[in-house]
């Protein structure tokens, strides 16, 4: 036969596809569908809330936590949390969902030696203590006080107790509306609606995932009717009206390392902020969809302040500040390396060049350093390279999936934060307070943190809160939200009227 | 008959005193080669003087003047080739890119050509173990993922034009090595090489005198094909972020970056790509011409000028007709 | 216009008649006439030898007749009749029909003329497949038969061998076999034995003789070995610088040459000269084809040359029974001193 | 012969003993087979002498020449040039030897680099032997001399090989071989590509040079009339071995070996009066050198073959001055005048040799 | 033949080992993969655990010894990215690449033979000029242009074929059409050149003298003689495709080895990279043997092949362009053999 291995069953392309199949085209093939790796975008976009489900779910729009496989949760001391589980839920293999499964899921992801991504991402080194109170009640105890433990738990996708605790599982069994049928490596993933689903049945009987790394190809698949939903598009992909943009939680910023001239002078760091014309960047490069940013988290995240002003674009002020610094003895002509990851997001190359140009106008010397992911990571995360031949200015794209600024500031702003170049004791203190706060206090505390960074620390020059774009064919209807990039809930997709 | 003589005298007039046609005349005889040569000279001149003339204009951004279509006189001559995604003049950028492009592609091709050819000629001439080992080395380089090499070199060293040249050169050496070896192995068995050996001529001198002149045209033609390959390879390195870095600009980089605009602003990618294609085609046409011009057995194709060839054909036809008439009488 | 030599013979005897053949070649130095006004005829069952120094246009003449000139060359005038069919006015299809069946040709270089990638059987049988529509099997058995005829041992097994597996002599015989496969009326053999040693040459000549007598084939033998001509040919046609300078039967031409060039050639043969003695040779060298002088083509080297030779090109004229020469002084050639002294004098300079 | 006038005793320039060369040629599926191109060659050349080498195409003549020129490495045997073994020479002394032995190649086209001019080709050796003509002027002068010597014009120096006729090309090759002033020139079919009148010119040239300079020649050819004309002694080769040697006259007039006899007999003659009455026409093909016949190599085509011929390799027979033929005695040093052949049943008379002329 | 094969295998084993060692060492020079696989805020302990799990904490030599030990047990390691068996991943991707390469080359060769032969019939004629210009352009067009424009025209505007994917025969059109350009362009030049020189050989005249038609002369006598240089170059082009047509595989979502290899390099997925390189190197080596066999099939003179050194000895019987090592990337050698005469 003259066909690619296993291709016979691959979903047929063409515009006359049977309408009971929902066809999604992604940027890349998921490396795995292992539930405990679901915080990886490419994994999560397939499984989260589609194949597997968490105990608790965060509403991407309101930011509120909502019940999913747990119906209610409470804690007296913010340390020990009790969760009531939903009854009558069945896994795809037919077994009943009980407390044992919930305990096993948490234990496997957080306490085991598996090295789950989600563990590193939301839980850190400390283990959780787990107790099965009865068939439908679980007790979770953190090592220390943790007011957002339910939020953390919302990252865990539930798998049955039988799932191996010593090895990762590529094809999970979940409780979600869709059941994984088969995965043809390299080509497609097929799922079908799970008949015993506890909730409302999805509209499409079948789902099919494919992946193409070229945005224009994904767009073309929508236009030509070969796919119903395409993720990760950009306006240049010629998608036309079928492109639907949505705020995607991602914020672009420049991180300045203050260990070398000229960034050891706060005037220069301020000058950088003045020099960049964020509004016109957003307007011209991003067609006005993105929003100029004043802080690392977008609206919708706890801690985001609507009132924090975007740094004014003032080329003259930037020049003055540079001159001032120069007068004060700072070596303003010292080279700055603008470190950028290739193809991290649409038009990153152009953005970098604009920034380079604008900073040059302000009188600084900027070299552009486009790096592939792995190399870029050595700059992004501690320990930072020390033998750099200039001051580092890293372009970073930060996405806060959790909806709480704690996930941002701990990493980006504390003195020792994994992705923080430097910090100040005062800021550290403010952050610690905010982390421990709850309710409205928490919001206010984080707002303070962001304001303080902008006024006194100036490690970051914020550029924009980004928007994502989905391609949605005429035959389906879907309303994207800020988490659509990480978690594409197929059950929410309906046939177009 | 008169026309035959005319043709002969016309042919004579084009020749030097020694009856041999100069290279320049031969170039003019081949119209395609002439056009190609003129084009290449223009490219080289652009590469030399372009950046000095257009340097400023190539970097000036204008975010309000993005992706303007080419060939619109209303935008002024600077934007005759349109503007790019940052509102820079495409014309200026293409002109400035010429230098970088040539500075990467030409040395890369030359280094690979020189190293690979000399090595191959040497291996092919001596044969035996030297040849076997060289071929195995070529095999190794050939089956090695060149991208890995690129990532390593640029990771360990850092992306710079010199390193890009190095990588492109190393990975393309086997092509020349194998070609040169094959030709040289064949040549070393020729009688005139044997003759040189009987004078006690040293191997290197034989290689220099008898082998290299013969293999050069072949290798140069190969090099022109490679020239285009190298420019495209450079563009894919750029795409991975390990090629030429902005604000430097090369045609390859422009092609790679413009590709996402292929459907919304085609000129960003097509124009520099066209420059690559045209340069490569021109180089190839010129190489083909040169191969004929330096081959004593082929040279006549160029030494005959078009006019006399036509006259010849006409005259023979007429003569045949006359003969036929005579025969009928 | 010249008339064919064999006019006196019954017309049906002449298988090939060539009249006033001109061949032009394009060179960097302009157009050159390499064959000029050549005429001869070949008789059924007889051998005509084309003689002449290297480069005088023998092969060109042969190729022109066979219609296989290189692209740089073209027939500029003249006629060639094969059994009274005009070869030069034929179109491609008619030509192809004549090739093989009417006219066979053996090329000068046996080593290169066989296609290295096909078996001898395939190549020998090809003519049968083209002209007789033979099946593969038939073609093969015909090939075996041919090989047997030209004396190749074990034809049944050798038929599947490739050209490089045969010796030079065998290859030459295979080429001859190929040319005579369809028993053509005319065989042109271009130096069929150069590079073979005399014992093999003798075998091949024997073969040609047999074919000639068995098939009544007319043979045009191109060679510059006078001894072979003397032994094998019936008629001879001597060429010089693209022109026929003398023709006639071998016996008369070789015993009584009536052109100074023929005479010079004959006395250059080292056969009876003694070791150490200088060989008689014709002083000078043939004219460059692009600079053929007006008048006699041989004037520069001719001891008899005089004013008329520089002005007027001598026509081929009868000088004896069946013998014709293109020399103004044909009658004096026989009395001409052998050019030994002249030659020696020339060489010493 | 010209050199005979010289009083100096005849000196042997080249002495070859038991020279053997085997090629390994790919064959069949089982790898390689041995091809004995030279199988124990003995010969010697004296100063000022011309040795002719004749034999069927492919019998190893060129291989012998190439081996003597050190273009091939022999498998066995010795070569002595003026008492020295050239294969043992290195560096300077090797180059000095190179100067003394030169070769004219079989193919006048292939042996000249088409991309060089005649002048460049002829002066090419000086690039290696820089001390000979150190200045450009000296080289130019020498080039002029050489061109003149071989009968080319000075203006020919700027032409490239394809502008010359075959004969002229061969002269360029000869001029190149002469440029270093060698003592021995190996001529591999120097006239086979030439037509008669040019051939005569070249042969005369070679003869003159020998007379003027006293060089020795090894003259390879299959044109017997030419060989007869130019050589002093002749060696006849068959399948990698010399099967007969003797003075030219002896070999041509009264061949000992049946193969020699058939060669002489088959050679076409211009003069009908000289044509033998009963020519020997050999039957069968030249056997493959890959698979030579046992015993006497010629037996497969020999009309005199007896059973013993297939069993035993024949010893040399010697014809004494009185015409008697006896078994050659290796212990007795061979006189140059002796005619020696390797055959069990040597040819006894001219009639048997197929040389008898119908008178 | 068997001796020959054995020799080839032995001769190729060493380079194979060198390639693997080289890839192994070079890959590890590209930096620690931990950052790629761990969350950005991963702690020190997590990093250590990761290194231990993937054996990256050992000295390089030990890692290498373990790797080679594994190879003998046919264990090629596990992918860091997917947790699957590396060899399995490579083997799964390879058929797709091979099929694509095979189809592409078959079409390219076929087209090139037709166009090249037609061009060779009249050197420097109109047809020749056009085909040489077109083929040069085809050989130098950036492939992603073609791919994207192709999708635009044929999939979106005309709707004839799917944009991408591997489903159905129509899906092959765009990838193959894109890939075919460079081999086609290069081969046209090579075949044209070889045909020009073959057509001037004496055996062509001989064939004509037998009354063979032009079609027979070109298709039978010239083509087979001109095929050797074509085979050489086609072999090299196939090597290029076997090594992965990255761009095309990426754009069209073709699940081939090129994409897998690039991803493994960028993702520092060492085991998979090594498995891929090993697989392609072996494939290239088999391809080379096949090409040698192809020579033998085409040209009886090289049929009894027995290694390079010996073969050259038989040069008496062989043409200049056939030798064991000579299936080289000599576009040139070939294309130029084109007009160059062998004679001088
Ligand atoms: N393809 C060609 N291009 C240019 N000149 C040619 C070509 N072929 C032949 N000639 C010239 O035409 C003339 C006649 O050539 P031809 O081959 O007929 O000679 P010939 O008599 O057969 O010589 P020989 O005995 O050497 O074979 C020669 O001077 C030769 O140089
Ligand atoms: N390099 C080689 N490799 C293998 N066999 C060879 C080689 N050179 C010569 N031979 C073989 O050795 C034998 C002798 O060849 P050689 O060229 O010496 O013959 P020759 O007597 O000069 O023939 P000719 O008269 O045709 O020139 C032939 O069978 C030839 O095929
Ligand atoms: Mg001829
Ligand atoms: Mg020889």
UniProtKB/TrEMBL annotation, chain B:
Domain ABC transmembrane type-1: start-end pairs: 98-287
Keyword Transmembrane helix attributed: yes
Top-level taxon of origin: Bacteria
Keyword annotations from UniProtKB, A to Z: Cell membrane, Membrane, Transmembrane, Transmembrane helix, Transport
InterPro entries: BP-dependent_transpt_permease, MetI-like, MetI-like_sf, OppC_N
Cellular localisation: Cell membrane
A biological process term (GO) from this entry: transmembrane transport
Recorded GO CC terms: plasma membrane
Topology in the lipid bilayer: Multi-pass membrane protein
Keyword Membrane among UniProt keywords: yes
Membrane-traversing stretches: 32-55, 102-125, 219-244, 264-289
SUPFAM superfamilies named in the record: MetI-like (SSF161098)
Family as reported in the entry's similarity comment: Belongs to the binding-protein-dependent transport system permease family.
Protein name as annotated: ABC transporter permease
TrEMBL record, chain C:
ABC transporter domain mapped to chain residues: 18-266
One Gene Ontology term, aspect cellular component: plasma membrane
InterPro entries for this protein: AAA+_ATPase (IPR003593), ABC_Ni/Peptide_Import (IPR050388), ABC_transporter-like_ATP-bd (IPR003439), ABC_transporter-like_CS (IPR017871), Oligopep_ABC_C (IPR013563), P-loop_NTPase (IPR027417)
GO MF, any single term: ATP hydrolysis activity
Biological process according to GO: peptide transport
Chief localization: membrane
Record keywords: ATP-binding, Cell membrane, Membrane, Nucleotide-binding, Transport
Top-level taxon of the source organism: Bacteria
PANTHER family noted in UniProt: DIPEPTIDE TRANSPORT ATP-BINDING PROTEIN DPPD (PTHR43297:SF2), OLIGOPEPTIDE TRANSPORT ATP-BINDING PROTEIN APPD (PTHR43297)
Entry protein name: ABC transporter ATP-binding protein
From TrEMBL, chain D:
GO terms classed as biological process: peptide transport; transmembrane transport
Annotated ABC transporter domain residues: 14-264
Keyword Nucleotide-binding: yes
CDD domains (UniProt xref): ABC_NikE_OppD_transporters
An example Gene Ontology molecular-function term: ATP hydrolysis activity
Pfam families reported for this sequence: ABC_tran, oligo_HPY
InterPro entries, alphabetized: AAA+_ATPase, ABC_transp_ATP-bind, ABC_transporter-like_ATP-bd, ABC_transporter-like_CS, Oligopep_ABC_C, P-loop_NTPase
UniProt entry keywords in alphabetical sequence: ATP-binding, Nucleotide-binding, Transport
Domain of life of the native organism: Bacteria
Family as reported in the entry's similarity comment: Belongs to the ABC transporter superfamily.
Protein name: ATP-binding cassette domain-containing protein
UniProtKB/TrEMBL annotation, chain E:
UniProt keyword annotation of Repressor present: no
Lipid bilayer topology: Multi-pass membrane protein
GO cellular component, one term: plasma membrane
GO molecular function, one term: dipeptide transmembrane transporter activity
Gene3D superfamilies in the record: MetI-like
Region (Disordered): 307-344
Domain ABC transmembrane type-1: 94-291
Keywords for this protein: Cell membrane, Membrane, Transmembrane, Transmembrane helix, Transport
Coiled-coil residues: none
Biased composition (Polar residues): 319-329
Transmembrane portions of the chain: 9-27, 98-121, 133-160, 166-185, 270-291
Keyword Cell membrane: yes
Localization, UniProt: Cell membrane
InterPro entries: MetI-like (IPR000515), MetI-like_sf (IPR035906)
Family as reported in the entry's similarity comment: Belongs to the binding-protein-dependent transport system permease family.
PANTHER family to which the protein is assigned, alphabetical: DIPEPTIDE TRANSPORT SYSTEM PERMEASE PROTEIN DPPB-RELATED
Name of this chain's protein: ABC transporter permease
Source organism: Glutamicibacter mishrai
